[in-house]
Amino acid sequence: MIQIGDTLPDVEVFEANPSHKVTTGQLFEGKRCLLFGVPGAFTPGCSKTHLPGYINDADEFHAKGISEIVCVAVNDAFVMAAWGEAVGAGGKVRLLADPTGTFTKALGLEVNAPALGGLRSKRYAMIVDNGVVTQLELEPDSFGLTCSLASSMIDRA
């Protein structure tokens, strides 16, 4: 499992559609970013609490030196794009699709959640400085809404 001090794996994920590939190595290179993972787009905790918190606090994170706020889920790019539109994430939080869980597995943060379709991401948040994890909060039960929320990460930024 990824830990503080580790470099993020360099993996392709997708933004907006399957033809728009983003490599995590390039995305996080030379920047200080906040990355958070959610079990799934459009799920209640993710849509009502987790993602909206980061959207609402985006300006405060940017004022603390965070270049980008990035959300990753094991969903396809079309679902992530539709979710971003539905919650008004545009310009505040980048939504990246990890459709096969390659990035999530490389982090060691995968969980089997049959009720959500099988392979999903544990819920987490991390500060990444030039590709290196400097802060990491992982929900103890993989799905809760405590330490990985925007309100919990703002002081760590």
Describe this structure as you would to a colleague.
The protein has helices spanning 24-28, 44-56, 58-63, 77-87, 102-107, 150-153, and strands spanning 12-14, 21-23, 32-38, 68-73, 94-97, 110-113, 118-121, 124-129, 132-138. The chain is α/β, with parallel strands linked by helices. The protein has one domain: Glutaredoxin. A hairpin with a 4-residue loop joins strand 6 (110-113) and strand 7. The mean pLDDT is 96.
Report a brief summary of the structure.
This protein is of the alpha/beta class and 157 residues long. It has helices at residues 24-28, 44-56, 58-63, 77-87, 102-107, 150-153; strands at residues 12-14, 21-23, 32-38, 68-73, 94-97, 110-113, 118-121, 124-129, 132-138.
Looking at this protein, list some descriptive labels:
9 strands; globular; 6 helices; Glutaredoxin; 157 residues; alpha/beta; five-stranded mixed sheet; single chain; two-stranded antiparallel sheet
What is Rg? 14 Å
Number of helices: 6
Distance from N terminus to C terminus (CA atoms, Å) equals 22 Å
Helix content: 25-40%
CATH homologous superfamily label: Glutaredoxin
Q: SSE string, helix = H, strand = E?
A: EEHEHHEHEHEEEEH
The neighbouring-strand order within the major sheet is: 5-4-3-8-9
- CATH topology, by name, is Glutaredoxin
* SS class: alpha/beta
Shape: globular
How many domains comprise the coordinates? 1
What's the level 1 CATH class?
Answer: Alpha Beta
Sheet-strand content, in percent, reads: 25-35%
> Architecture, according to CATH?
3-Layer(aba) Sandwich
Mean pLDDT: 96
Query: Main sheet?
Result: 5 strands, mixed
Number of strands: 9
Uncertain regions spanning at least 5 consecutive residues: none
